Amino acid sequence: MQDKLVNAADKTWAFVLKHKKVSIGVVVALIIVLIWYTIDNFRTYTDFTIKNDVAMEDSDGTAYESFHGNIVKYNSDGAFYVSKEGDLIWNEAYNMSSPCISICSEYVALYDRGGTTVYVMNTTGRKGLITTSKPILRACIADNGSVAVLMNQRDVSYLEIRDIEGELVASGELHVENSGIPIEIAFTNDGERLAVSSIIFNTGNVQSNVTFYDFSSTGQGKKDNIIAQYTFQDMVIPKLVFMSNDNLVAFGDHEIVLFNDSSEPKIKKEIFPTGSIDSIVYNDSNFGYIGPETNDKGETVKKLYVFGSLGWKKLNKVIDDAYTNVYMLSNNDIVMATDKTAAIHSISGKKRFEHEFENSIIKILPSTGRKDYIFVQNGVVQDVRLK
User: What is the reported pLDDT for 2?
Assistant: First the structure.
């Protein structure tokens, strides 16, 4: 055995010597790539080159989201799917008093909060239309086009799951005296699990329930398809988000709770900020918050924390940017913006971009390359590269 090991080692060393020029070349190339990546990742940009700009005179209240490299813009009168060059791909006319959007993989759900319609769209246009009998509070879409809908009427809440054709898959009623007041839902990408956050008022105190429903074979033997329920005292949980690995993040007013993905979801991690939670950020693979803390000098500072979908801390950073709007992009950058200023922070903690615009900045969206973004400003949409 020892002779075989020695022989193998000799052959390996002979190969390295024979191909050392190739090996050295590979190493040098890797070093160059590493140096370039390090410089690029830790560089701050203050200006940009406009690759393309398109005038867009949209009405007040128009919102913008990225979808398959293009832009969905929507308002009370309808939705438009346009390319970065401004070419119309599809449009859908409707009349909504409070239009909202849910995006997952191949589908977009456009619904009227307080209304009774949900439009299911993909990159080519409308694929389904769901009409409900009761006012919609919240709707979420899965990557198969099915939609979970939370509705309310006369102090009774209703949950429905409908497929892309509008056919009813599952339904249930939630009565205030038993289940509290549902305020938020989240739907897994595969459309099999639904989480509901409810508020319960009991003798003047408030508590929140997070209830997990499973509509696969796992939940068929459970009463009302409920596989887990957790109660949190003195806390409101207004936001639920399923990560891409189906772990659930529950954003409370003074705590963030991460649940794992199992046949009976368990609490995986509880995050207790030292101060309040001023703002939250998330995408399908990371989540975090901004809140005040007292540093070693006794000064109050704002800190940004970011965690991965498994609960590991990725970022702990003091920030000094003023912002009225903060959000996380699909490429994991964090945008902090006011009316005419914007800063982009990488998940590694480096401020990648800072700029003061002439026009109001409405939304920043990711584009094709690492330095490429779409700047949606008042009256114009620009496809840019940082410089």
Answer: 45
Rounded to whole angstroms, the Cα distance separating 243 from 48 reads 32
Amino acid making up residue 3: D
Could you count the other beta carbons within 10 Å of the beta carbon of residue 229?
A: 14
Token pair listed for 143: 């990557």
Backbone φ and ψ of 139, nearest 5°: -140, 140
- Taking only the tens place, the pLDDT of each residue in 24-35 is 666 556 666 555
Q: Is the pLDDT of residue 310 over 90?
A: yes
Q: Are 79 and 111 in contact (CB under 8 A)?
A: no
The per-residue pLDDT of the chain, averaged, comes to 90
pTM: 0.88
Distance, in Å, from the CA atom of 183 to the CA atom of 72, rounded to the nearest integer, reads: 26
Q: What number of CA atoms fall less than 13 Å from residue 317's CA on the CB side?
A: 17
| Residue from 204, 163, 203, 200 nearest 183 by CA | 200
- Complete DSSP assignment for 89-139: EEEEE---SSEEEEEETTEEEEEETTSSEEEEEETTEEEEEEE-SS-EEEE
Cα 204 to the center of its chain, rounded Å: 34
Q: In the block, which residue shows the tokens 């867009």?
A: 56
Q: In the block, which residue shows the tokens 């879409």?
A: 141
